[in-house]
Amino acid sequence: MEFKNLIIWHEAVELKEIVYSLTHKFLSFEKFGLGSQLRRASLSVPSNIAEGSATGDTKEHIQFLYQARGSLAEVITQVELPKKFAYIDASETVKIDGLCVELSKMINSTIASLMSKLVRS
């Protein structure tokens, strides 16, 4: 599986692991609501990166990266609520925020690279 060699995939897996760890600190009623949704969104990022990479088709790969980017936007949005309501300390999300910025840049540059490849072919 070549996607396991991708830095972008490893970064996305790290984000998922941090989110999973963080959501265990949520209040019990939020673990099954917001926590569950946040875990699913964070899992979707590396899953879509992997699936897109495995398709072997550039257009499909780009589409899966768009889905990964959308899931990343969900994570960014959903991390704000527990900070706002003090379910977690804002300092606990510094790593998540940084990873989200980096992943967004990586996803966007990968999409641009693949689009360029499409134009050339």
TrEMBL record:
<protein>
    <submittedName>
        <fullName>S23 ribosomal protein</fullName>
    </submittedName>
</protein>
<dbReference type="InterPro" id="IPR012657">
    <property type="entry name" value="23S_rRNA-intervening_sequence"/>
</dbReference>
<dbReference type="Pfam" id="PF05635">
    <property type="entry name" value="23S_rRNA_IVP"/>
</dbReference>
<dbReference type="GO" id="GO:0005840">
    <property type="term" value="C:ribosome"/>
</dbReference>
<keyword id="KW-0689">Ribosomal protein</keyword>
<keyword id="KW-0687">Ribonucleoprotein</keyword>
<dbReference type="InterPro" id="IPR036583">
    <property type="entry name" value="23S_rRNA_IVS_sf"/>
</dbReference>
